[in-house]
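User: Structure with nicotinamide-adenine-dinucleotide, tokens only please.
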Amino acid sequence: MTTIDYREFYIDGGWQTPVGSDVIDVHSPTTESSIGSVPSASTADIDRAVAAARSAFDAPDGWATLHPRQRAEILERFATELEARAAETSRRVTIQNGMPIWLAEQFEGGFPAVLLRYFSQMMVESPEVDERPGMLGGTARVTRQPIGVVAAIVPWNVPQAITFLKLAPALAAGCTVVLKPAEETVLDAFLMAEAAVAAGLPSGVLNVIPGGREIGAYLVGHPDVDKVSFTGSTAAGRSIAETCGRLLRPVTLELGGKSAAILLDDVDLDASMESLFGATFLNNGQICWLNTRVLAPRSRYGEVVDALTGLAESLKVGDPLDPETKVGPLVSARQRERVEGYIAKGKSEGARLTTGGGRPTGLDSGYFVQPTVFADLDNTATIAREEIFGPVLSVIPFGDEAEALAIANDSEYGLGGSVWSSDLERAAAVAGRVKSGTVGVNHYSNDPVAPFGGIKNSGMGRELGPEGLHAFQHLHTVYLPPAG
Ligand code: NAD
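Assistant:
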């Protein structure tokens, strides 16, 4: 197989030779062989990228000064170039992180252009000024201004969609961006940079600099960065928040989760199975908002355990490039070790394994783990409390709705969740009492029009919706004096 190799970084509108000679080798989690390489950034490369973003933002006729319509025209060209590369983007994500190709086509190939157009249009339609009659006789003129140079740091699990949760509102708002992709998924980020070049994005507006966590930490603390937008683990988020706290630097953090699906006693299980798959095992269990705790009424506990066991056993595990595959490999050997460690912990703490728990037979290579279901545990079990980030569900029994809510809310996380019932209003009422940023009824998916994000250890701030745009703006008030 030919490998995909890059030798330069996308900085200041073009391809630039790295200062250092370090290289990131990318491996397929399916074949375990090398599939490409990109240069790994040094701090000097970060300095160049931030300087480019800084001048593009500060220039008197720079990106921030364009009318939103002018930015929208350029971002429309970017969206078109991304669409022209959508199939290859999806393929690259799938071969790097194991995301099933049909899902990559939706999330990774399709979503970036949708988000660019959504936020560009929102900026075009936003009122330029908000004039408020003052209480003291004058007028307060309030505007939203782009916040400046943004450091965007993203993980490997849904790399392009998460990138554009940040890039689309930031660029539409008039900010400039230095993007640091995760080392596991860089080939899609470089293809995105090719689209930016083809679209003629002005110099310095977007810069793509891959590297490890030290490089990420350096970028977060860089004196010329005005805002940090981070998605990743809670541990990294905490460290980034500490830096931003010290610098009084605005930060948005989208972190881990341990969300609960509450199945009420009138749930129609047969009708729910496909949506339950989407809420639990999607992307091989590697999405932050997945509902990996399934709470089932005691009266129907056995039935729910059997249904989820059957679901797990029905999922085709294998090559993620095969459109029939529902569960691909985990991203890395390290991630598989972590997931297997949790499976061992579940067993040793006395939970009952109803299916899975091992590596699938017949797959000679790849970091595969069988879809796994644990029953007969309560919410104190380690596997019910910690984020596993793999295809492992815990089915926990409850008595009544109050107990279901108490269990769902007994978590250090608060990102997603869902409530399942034949009565939508009943489910929505229960959903309203789940302590997390977002909750679905009879399904879970984030809709771009509404704010997405978490509370507690799941982070702070929101992406998507108008709130996702406001995260890249600051408010500016001019007090006009009373007339006469
Ligand atoms: P990670 O935190 O190790 O890495 C994420 C990114 O941050 C990578 O680019 C990494 O290089 C960088 N990074 C790591 N430490 C850093 C530091 N101290 N300073 C600056 N940058 C740093 O996370 P991961 O294991 O790659 O990703 C999985 C995690 O991401 C899971 O916990 C998952 O729940 C979370 N996640 C959250 C969301 C959300 O929207 N809430 C979405 C996807 C993933």
